[in-house]
Amino acid sequence: MKALVIGDSYYPAQVFADVFKDYPWADQVRYAEVDSDAPFSPATESEKRLRECIGTPADVIGHLHSDDDVLVMHGAPVPSEALDAAPGLKLICCARGGPVNLDLAAAQDRGIQVTVTPGKNAEAVADLTLAFAVMLARHVPRAAAHVRAQGGLGESTYEGAAFFGNEVAGLTIGLVGYGAVARFFARLARPIGANLLAFDPFISALDCERDGVTKVDSLDDLLEASDIVSLHARATKDNQNLMGREQFARMKEGAGFINTARESLVDESALAEALRSGHVSGAALDVLRPAEIPGRHPLAELDRVVITPHIGGATWETLRRGALMAADEIGKFVAGSAPSHPVPVRKS
Length: 348
Known about the structure:
The structure is a single chain. By secondary structure, the chain is of the alpha/beta class. The protein has helices at 13-20, 45-48, 57-63, 80-84, 104-109, 122-137, 140-150, 180-189, 205-209, 219-225, 245-250, 268-277, 316-335; strands spanning 3-7, 29-33, 70-73, 91-94, 113-116, 172-176, 195-199, 214-215, 228-231, 255-259, 280-285, 305-307. Helices cover 33% and strands 15% of the residues. It is elongated and about 70 Å long. The strands form two sheets. A seven-stranded parallel sheet has the order 8-7-6-9-10-11-12, with helices on both faces. It has a five-stranded parallel sheet with strand order 2-1-3-4-5. It folds into two domains: 3-120 and 315-335, NAD(P)-binding Rossmann-like Domain (Rossmann fold); 122-307, NAD(P)-binding Rossmann-like Domain (Rossmann fold, 3-Layer(aba) Sandwich), CATH 3.40.50.720. α6 crosses α8 (180-189).
């Protein structure tokens, strides 16, 4: 077996090297990095099918050998032209939830097995969600904006009177979607006394009850009962703007809103209106749609909002888990076993 690992500025190859060194096939792996600052302007039809890439296809092609059996990467763009440079490839492991930076059709047409590393960041995103819940319960976004506007703390020890909030214990937190992130969040929030609701038409009440979570019958039921609403649904073409004007209006007066899932789930104009009116007391967002016009995003101007630059999965533990999952796939390949997380072959 010959394997190539291509790292990038987000997911350095050294993370894989540190994990792979203890495996019996470690000496058959070489490591490279794409130039993460190099601009990529898709030119071919295959390149135009790629999303969320870092580096260039030319960089990838330069690192591949014709007799490579395995390719492991995270964000490097892998169009059909790169696959042509390594006709011996039999396995590609994309260390993320979906192989959006790979021309999947081209790979599967060549008989290449493609695997991914689903759920590697679930614990990290759950961590951030809990931090966001505490921040909203205690009105941290407004309080922090107040200090920035003041240029520091005032002399009065009573300034905090304007920012009274609640402790998380006793609050009702509604989880829209009940997948891996929501489950990890439940494990964190239940022991500190939060009451948890979940709406997910694809899971059973028993699945929720095992985690101490109550399943509700509709999104409206969840919105009307929750002190904080947190999005954890998988984005699809059918649930764009799942949270719109009607949904924000149904939320409890003064409730908080969290999105650590996908930006497409939220009508951000409707959220901004709900925040300006005070009906939604605050929002914590790890994802945003690109601003429609150049300049600052409208939500970034509101003192009731905290925004982070998609850091939900940005922990070293997440990267290590992904590397361990990739190592598992390589081990199964070497042993001639079926992969743990294969991407289903598309129907022709």
